[in-house]
Write a structure and sequence with these properties.
The chain has 265 residues and is an alpha+beta fold. The protein has helices spanning 6-24, 26-130, 136-150, 157-174, 232-242; strands at 178-185, 192-199, 203-208, 214-218, 223-226. The protein folds into two domains: 55-174, no CATH class; 178-265, no CATH class. It has a five-stranded antiparallel beta sheet with strand order 1-2-3-4-5, covered by helices on one side. Helix 2 (26-130) packs across helix 4 (157-174).
């Protein structure tokens, strides 16, 4: 059997194609060329579409990668935050335990402080009733308010104690101040409106609105007594000083005990 070289076979195939093309004519050739161009154009379009898909996938991959890295950073931040919160919660639990111990102690202390505060209020009440009777309504109401305060569950023992000490401080201040205020003395037909002058706790005197009568509180006998007219100028001037209508000056008043009309000062 005779064997033909590969080159000979290829040349023969090319010759056959050439003969076929020549035999087919110009029209067939144009159709083949146009078909080849269409095929190439379609292939180019598909290539462009594929490239767009590849580019889109690449962009999506970049976005997903960026989101992944951001998420990893957030997770790490949350881990750090959670560790910090664990420490904070542990510290708060210790603080709550300490506060509970303090509350337990406060309850024990409260049971001991409450009788003391009640005794302080009773003492203040007794003091007001035995003291010179100035601003008696105001001072009595202050004591009653303290008693009401002691029955309130929504007020802490610390606040109750503060209010009691405040009342004691107010009473203490009375002994170092001078004051003028209006009020009344007497009862029934003898009741009359007067202006009171208080000099600390040393003296409590009064003058009627018409200025015709002056008097003073006799602490020893616990009653009001009328003074002779020689005290009128001093009491009138004392009222002006207390109201800041005149400069302070020496006043001649019945101290420490009041002198009845016609008696010696």
């Amino acid at each position: 059997m005779r064997h033909h070289p590969a080159g000979f076979a290829g040349a023969r195939l090319a010759a056959l194609i050439a003969i076929t093309v020549i035999c087919a004519g110009p029209e067939a050739l144009a159709q083949d060329v146009e078909q080849a161009i269409d095929t190439r154009t379609q292939a180019n379009k598909e290539g462009v579409a594929s490239q767009k898909k590849i580019d889109a996938l690449s962009d999506q991959t970049d976005v997903l990668l960026s989101e992944y890295r951001t998420t990893i950073k957030q997770i790490e931040s949350l881990r750090v935050y959670n560790r910090q919160m664990d420490q904070l919660i542990s510290s708060q639990m210790d603080e709550l335990a300490s506060l509970q111990d303090q509350l337990d102690n406060v309850e024990l202390i409260g049971r001991g402080v409450t009788p003391l505060m009640l005794n302080m209020i009773d003492g203040l009440d007794k003091f007001v009733s035995l003291d010179v009777p100035f601003l008696l309504k105001e001072r009595t109401e202050r004591v009653e308010n303290l008693r009401t305060l002691m029955d309130r569950a929504d007020v802490t023992n610390a606040e109750k104690y503060r209010r009691i000490m405040e009342a004691y401080q107010i009473e203490n201040e009375y002994g170092r101040t001078i004051e003028a205020y209006s009020g009344s003395i007497g009862e029934g037909a003898d009741e009359r409106t007067v202006d009171f002058l208080r000099l600390g706790r040393i003296a409590l005197v009064y003058q009627t609105r018409d200025g015709l009568e002056v008097g003073a509180w006799d602490q020893k006998n616990r009653k009001w007594v009328t003074l002779d007219s020689s005290y009128k100028p001093a009491i009138k001037e004392g009222l002006r000083v207390a109201r800041k209508q005149a400069a302070p000056e020496m006043l001649r008043l019945p101290l420490p005990a009041a002198t009845p009309a016609g008696g010696e000062s």
